[in-house]
Structures are given as C-alpha cells and as structure tokens.
Design a protein that fits this description.
The chain has 328 residues and is an alpha/beta fold. It has eleven helices and twelve strands. 31% of the residues lie in helices and 22% in strands. An eight-stranded mixed β-sheet has the order 6-7-8-3-9-10-12-11, sandwiched between helices.
Length: 328
C-alpha cells in the first residue's frame, strides 16, 4: 500500500532577530531549527502519534504538514502531491482532503456562530453551496454522537467533550483522507477522554480516514495509535510500532517518558526512570547527542558524536549510542 503522507528530511526554521539586529550583533545565522530533518510515512487508514515534551517540535511539524508554517527544506507529499512551497490558492484545494482538530476546540469556534453554521462552514469556504446545510449538519452531528438539536447551540453552551465532537464533525465535513488532531483529549476528564478516543476509532473504522495525533499523553497513544514517533528538540529519537516501543523502548528519553506515564494497573510494579535538568534551548543545542546532558546512561561518545539512526526491528528505528533492551 502506497503512503498517503510522506515527510522526507523536513526542516522548519524560525528567525530569532531582524536583519538589522543580526547585522549589528554580527550574527550570521539568526535562526533556530524547530524541526530538524524529520522523515516518516503515514498510510491510508493508519494512526500515528507524535509524542514529546512541550517545545519538542511536534506541533510545529503538524503545522508544517498543514501548510500553516513554511518548510525551509525537505519534502512533504500528500496524496502524491508535493506540498512544500505550494501557494495558498493551491493549498486550499488540498485542505479538502486534510482536516485539522485544534487543541482548544471552544477557542477555535466562532462564539457568534451556531454549531450548525460552524460545522457546515467548510462547504461555504470551498464554494460547495449546492449542499443542504441543515441535512448535512444533522448527518455530521449524528456521526459524532450528538443529536440534531445541538445545531442550535452556541460554542459557550457546549461542554468540553461536546466541543471536541463538534470540532471533529467540522473536520469530517469534506470527507478528508487525513485528520491532524492536536491534543484531542487535553483538558478533558478521563472518562470523557475515553469517549473521544473511542469515537475517533469508530470514525476511522467507518470512513478509513488516516489520523495524525499530536500529544504528550502516552495513554492516548497506546489506546489508539498503530505507530508512534518520539521527538526531542525537533528531531525524531525513536519511531516504530506502538506496542513494540511500549514493550521494548530503545532510547533513554522514550524509556523516561513511558516510565512517567501513570500505570492503569495499581498492582503492577512500576519503575520510574528519572531525567534531570531542563530541556536545552534551541538556540544553544548540546553537542553530540542532544539528550546527553539529561541522560542517565551517558558515555563519553555521547558528548561529542551525534548518533545516527539504527534499526531495532522492521520499521523500528532509534538514535542512541547505548540503546536499551537489546538482549534477545
């Protein structure tokens, strides 16, 4: 099966100061790399999770895929079309097939519009005025488990879980091939989180839509994703099958993230791996392995030599000089 989304060596840079300030201070490269040479693929109907601490670059990568921030170098291909450097007019056609679920569902909805207008707005934006908006709103609300009378409500009249469902209904309006979901369960009670994740899984089973989830919640990742990619300072440090990474993580950063995740079984023994220190500044990246100043397994090689990608099993890759769980 060919990939729906192909990200190859993508780099996203942001300017840290204006041209005059850079000239005055003799700064020759006044940029930071928020995403560094990232590559992965997403197949039709697959769910992939991007995981990492705040500032790891996962949301920036998602925004680059959606065309909301420019790509400095590399390639993003979606449905066999190159997106890097695509003009906004051309990208508007792509957005029929690529939908977004925002982290703040209520804040992303206009408070002056009723739910019915909000979830059918994509039709108006794309000039699809031949649709029966009332019928379409009813269909979309039913898809996400809400009754038709929710169409008459305003965003402030929705609970957090209901707002998530409305955001998903809006994302589904144009029958996309891919949904990018940014922290789809943030701020929700645990029971409501489960409802939202089960809803996403059901929608995917019914429509075949692919899902890219951006989250720091590893319980979300384990519940719904097929594969996961762990980001640190804008780079992937491990990527592979979700179950395999949970069972046998190879990178110390992955191990630390997994050990910090709450264990659902209260009787299970839980060994927590501590990582110390703050995430380094993107303006002052560590030499060698960029995780070495926080790693509990640091060696001399780690301080000076950046590790290349190594393969653990088919489709499971990591960057570490001293990988974990290598014994058979």
């Amino acid at each position: 099966m060919s990939a729906l989304l192909e990200v190859s060596d993508v780099r996203v840079r942001f300017r840290t100061m204006g041209p005059l300030a850079a000239l005055t201070r003799r700064v020759h490269d006044p940029y930071i790399d928020a995403v560094c040479n990232v590559s992965f693929q997403l197949a039709p109907g697959e769910t992939v999770g991007l995981v990492g601490e705040s500032g790891s670059g996962k949301s920036t990568l998602a925004r680059a895929i959606a065309g909301l921030v420019p790509v400095h170098s590399g390639s993003i291909r979606f449905a066999e079309q190159e997106l890097s450097g695509l003009g906004q007019r051309s990208f508007s056609r792509v957005r029929r097939e690529l939908a977004l679920m925002f982290q703040d569902p209520t804040g992303s909805l206009s408070p002056r519009m009723k739910v019915r207008s909000l979830i059918t707005e994509p039709y108006r934006i794309h000039g699809m005025r031949d649709r029966n908006f009332r019928q379409e709103a009813k269909r979309l609300l039913e898809m996400v488990g809400l009754s038709a009378d929710f169409g008459d409500r305003y965003p402030h009249q929705l609970s957090g879980g209901q707002a998530r469902r409305v955001g998903l209904a809006r994302a589904l309006a144009l029958d996309p091939q891919l949904i990018i979901a940014d922290e789809p369960t943030a701020g929700l009670d645990v029971s409501v989180q489960g409802e939202v994740l089960n809803l996403l899984a059901r929608i995917q089973a019914e429509t075949g839509v692919a899902i890219l989830i951006i989250t720091h919640n590893l319980n979300v990742v384990r519940h719904i994703t097929d594969r996961m990619a762990i980001m640190y300072l804008g780079r992937f440090v491990e990527i592979g099958d979700t179950d395999e990474i949970f069972e046998r993580p190879r990178h110390p950063y992955t191990e630390a993230l997994l050990s910090a995740s709450p264990e659902p079984d209260p009787d299970a023994q839980h060994h927590r791996v501590e990582i110390h220190g703050e995430v380094p500044s993107l303006m002052n990246r560590p030499t060698g392995c960029e995780f070495h100043n926080r790693c509990p397994y640091i060696g001399e090689r780690c301080k000076n030599e950046a590790p290349a990608f190594s393969q653990a099993t088919s489709g499971h890759f990591y960057t570490c000089h001293h990988p974990l769980n290598t014994s058979t």
